[in-house]
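Researcher: Good morning. I'm working through a list of sequences from a screen, and I'd like to move beyond sequence-only analysis. For each chain I'm collecting a predicted structure so we can compare shapes side by side. This is the next one on the list. No need for commentary yet; just the structure.
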Amino acid sequence: MKLFDKLFSTGSNRDGKGFILALGGGGGRGLAHLGVIDVLEEHGLRPDAIVGSSIGALFGAMYAIEPDAKKVIVRAKEIHSSQPFSRLGLPNLEEADQQDASWLSRLTAAARQSMLFTRAATDRSVADTGALIEVAETFCGGESFKDAKIPLYITAVRFPSGECHLFSSDTEVKLACAIAASMAIPGVFDPVMVKGEKFADGGLAAELPSKEAKMVATADELVLAVNVGSRPRPDVEPKNVYGMLDWATQIKALYLRQSKKEFCDVLIEPLVGFTQWHDFSNPEQEIQKGRDAALEKMPELIEKLKA
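Model: Good morning. Structure tokens for this chain:
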């Protein structure tokens, strides 16, 4: 069985020079995607297609359904305060040890003081997967991939066999379920059932979906990728086994993203690496980081589009 199931048609109706926008995973760091999209729009640049992983799937879908950056930004800022988001049941990590920057260590500290400890030991998730689907339904604004005005592709990983899967208009699935599957971080959310199969976080295999975007692209289309992945803090050492496991996961993801950079024609990397994935509390700050990084790369992108 192939590691990557290509579910889209090999043909393309898109002609001429353009670009495929690849939006990576990163939770709250993904707010920077919105700043990038805003700058692209200001320069009169619209992607021929969008490939999204995890939070990149949600924000990519929102823009694909309604290609108006300002409107998408307004709606995205409402996510953190929305009723579906509050129902996710993400653990309150602010009460855990703030000196330890490891999310996993902070989760463990919080779990020891709550019912999370029992649930983490007896269940596969600690948050409400149904609410995750509701977040996608509330904010993406579309029922199916065919509602997208910009062709949309979403990554997910088949559970438990692990193949990387790409949802698109060629697959008759509910858009919100595909988005939720792509955002279903293992251990936080249960895998999501999509047409009789279970899928988990697309970021496991394609945290930066540039290779997938290259597969979608025609010979005349560039791949513009946005990397909002995390990196370990250089000034904080893990204090326990959980911290070491979290550190190891970040290192593996860091090198996986680096291996995907070879498929990018232009790579935008907002300075969001130390923002925790669950932190959506500073949208203006994260969006501005995306704007700053995109503005720096605009001359390169425009030059390559003209070449």
